[in-house]
Amino acid sequence: MSQKKQVTFEECMENVQTYIKRPENIELIQKAYDFAYEHHKGQFRKSGEPYVIHVIQVANTLALMHCGPKTIAAGLLHDTVEDCQGVTTDTITELFGQEIATLVDAVTKIGAIKFKDEEEYLASNHRKLFIAMAKDIRVILIKLADRLHNMRTLQYMRPEKQKKIARETLSVYAPIAHRLGISEIKNELEDLSFKYLDYKKYEEIKDLVKQRESDRNEQVHEMISDIESIMQEYNIQYRIFGRSKHFYSIYKKMVTKNKRFEEILDLLAIRIVTDSVVHCYEILGYIHAKYRPIPGRFKDYIAMPKANMYQSLHTTIVEPEHGNIFEIQIRTEEMDAIAERGVAAHWKYKENRNYTPEYEQKEIEDKLSWFRDFSMMTDEESEDPLEYMNVLQKDIFEANVYCLTPRGKVIALPSGSCPIDFAYRIHTEVGNKTVGAKVNGAIVPLNTPLKTGDVVDILTNNNSAGPSADWIKIVKSGHARNKIRAFLQKQEQQSRKESIKLGQSMLEDEFKRLKLDPKLMDQKRLESILTSLSFKSVDDLYVGIAMKRVSLQSIVDRLVKNRSNMLEDQEIMKIYNKQPAHVTKHSSCGVIVPGVDTIAVSLANCCRPIPGDSIIGYISKGQGVKVHRADCPNIVNEKKRLIPVQWEEGLDERQYEVNLIIHSDDRNYLLSDIVTTLQQCNVYLKHVDSAVDDGNLEATTKLTVSVKNAAHLQNLISNLKKVRSVNEVIRTIQ
C-alpha cells in the first residue's frame, strides 16, 4: 500500500482488478464512480482540483488494502450524502442497497443538531463513527482512507485548520489505525500530523536522518550481505531489506525516553521475511550464534502476539567489526502482511469464498482481544459523547499494560491499572462481585498496580455488597469508573426509594400517635412547608425524616398550626408574658425560660447544647420548649416560635452528652492515644466507633462523650487536635 502518488480512476480500477474479477462486482464499482462523478460535478477542493479526485484516492487506498467491492463502492460514495444536494441515505439504499447505504451513513458527519461547542460536535461525530465500527469494521477502513488523503492534501488549508485536523488525526485516527495493526497508514498519519503540529522539530529530525542516510545505508547493506550468506548456507527461503524508522516514532523516543538521536538503537533496522514459523526461530538461532545479542532486547511476539495481531521476533545485536547496533525483525510473509496492513490483510477480500460481514465481524472480535472490549464499551458507555471519547481514548487507544486471565486470555489496560480495572474489563458483574485478587498466584491488595505479563485471578463472592465509593479513587480505566458510578447511583436510587417510603410511614405513624387528621398531611400542605424546612420536594422531605435531618415535631407543628385545639402563638405569648406568681422552679435540663415556669423545657437531640453555648428556645406543640444551639440548622428558618432562654447558674456538677467526629491518618495505637487524652481531660466516654478507609488510609472515629460545659469541651477538642496524626475534630449536629 505504498502507492502515494495521485491516481486516476482507470489506475484505481487496475489495482481493483488484480483481485476482483467478477463482472457484477466491477459493474458495482463503476456504477458508484459514475454516480459520484455526476453528483460531485462542479465541486472543487481547496487545492482547486475537481472533488471527484478525492473519492478516487479513497477508493484506491481501499483497493490497495484488498477491500471488497461494496467497501470500495461506499468509499466512492462516502461524501455524496453530506456534500451533494438531493442525495440522501434513502437514495443510496435505493440505487446500491442497504449494506452500502449503512456504510456511507456511518462516515457521514452529524448535521442539523446544535452542539454547545466544537469539542462536543467532534466527539459526537467520533462516537457515531466508532459505534458503527463496532458493528462493521469496514466503516473505519473507509474513514482511515478518507483521512489519509485529506492529510496528504492538508497544505491547502489555513494554518489553524491544519493544526486542528492534525491534532484530531494524531489523537483519534492514528491510534485506531495502530490498534487495527495498519502500520502503513498509522505511520504516514503520524508523520503528516507531526509535520503540521511541530514543523521545526519535524524538519530537524528529517535533516538528522538525511545526514546519516548514506552511512546508514552502507552499514545496513553490509549487514544484509552477511545475513544473506547465512541464509544461503542453510538453504532457507527469505526476503531481506532495511527498514527505516518513521520521523514521529523517532521524535517520541527522543521525548518520552529522553534520548539523543544517536542513542536510538533501532535506527539501523533489518527485516527478514521467511516462509514458516520454524524458519523464523531457526534464523534467530543462526544470527545469535554469529552476533552478540544485547540482553533484555529480545521480544517474542510470535508466541505472544500484540493486541493488534502483530507477530514477529525482535532482537538487537552488535556487529563486531564496527560496533554498530542493529535491530533485526524476523517474521513470515503472512505476519509481514498483517504487520503492514493489519486487520485489512487478515480479512482481505477473496471472491471464491462465501463473504458475510457478520461472520467477519465475529472473527475480528475473536482475533483482536481489544476489539471485544471496544464493542462492549460501545454498547454500554455513557450517552455523553465527550465522556465516551475520554473512556475510549484512555482505555483502548492508550492501553499499554497487557495482563492475562488464568486461561491465557490477554486483557489490555491503561498504565497504572489495578485488579479492579481488570475485573470490570472481564465483565461488569465480575467487577461488582469482586472481593479480592491473586496476581501470579499471590493474594494482593485490590489497589496493586498491574504490570505486563501478570496473570490475574479475580476472587468473587455472590453475597458481596458491591463496589465501594473508594474504588473510584483507585481505578485508572474510565470503563471501570463508569461502572462503579452506575452501581452506586443505582444503589443510591434504591436506598432513596426505601428512605422515601420509610419517611412517609414515620410521618403517618406520628399523626396516628397524636390522633391528628390525616388530611392535614396531604400533598399541597406538605409542599407549602418545604421552603421553611429548606427542602426542594416532598420526596426530599420524606428522605430528611428517614435520615433524621428534620424532626417530626417541627413538621407536625407546621402542618397543624391552624388547628383550633392547639395553642395559638398569641396564647403561647400570653403565657410567656405573664408575671410569675411564685419563685421560679429549677429545670431538669439546666435551662429556664425567664419569667415562665409552667412550660416543660428539654434539650434538643439534634444539636445537644451544653452550658456556655448560645441557645434559643423553640415552642413545640405538645412537647413544651425545645432548647437548641443558636446556630442549629433545624431552627435557622424559624421566625415566630422562638423565645429567649438561658442557662441556670451552678450547673458544674451536671454532665452533658456531645457527639464528636475525629478525622486522622491511620496508625498503630491511634485509638489508645485518643482514649488516653479523654481520661487526661476528665471526660467520660459513652460510645466509640472507628473505621479506616483503605483507599487513602484515613481513620474516622466517632465519639459520644459527657462534658460539663463549653469550656470543658473546648479544652478536650484542643487536646485531641494535639494527638499525633489527628487532622480534624468536629462537633456534630444531627
UniProtKB/TrEMBL annotation:
Q: Which CDD domains match?
A: HDc (cd00077), NT_Rel-Spo_like (cd05399), TGS_RSH (cd01668)
UniProt keyword annotations, A-Z: Hydrolase
GO BP of this protein: guanosine tetraphosphate biosynthetic process
Sample GO molecular function, one term:
GTP diphosphokinase activity
Q: Give every TGS domain span.
A: 397-460
Catalytic activity as recorded in UniProt: GTP + ATP = guanosine 3'-diphosphate 5'-triphosphate + AMP
**Pathway it belongs to?**
Purine metabolism; ppGpp biosynthesis; ppGpp from GTP: step 1/2
InterPro entries named among the record's database cross-references: ACT-like_dom_sf, ACT_dom, Beta-grasp_dom_sf, HD/PDEase_dom, HD_domain, NT_sf, RelA/Spo_fam, RelA/SpoT_AH_RIS
| Keyword Transcription regulation found | no
Q: Does the keyword Hydrolase apply?
A: yes
In short, the EC number is: 2.7.6.5
* Domain ACT, residue spans: 659-734
- Name the family the entry cites: Belongs to the relA/spoT family.
Q: What protein is this chain from? A: GTP diphosphokinase
Origin organism of this chain? Holdemanella biformis
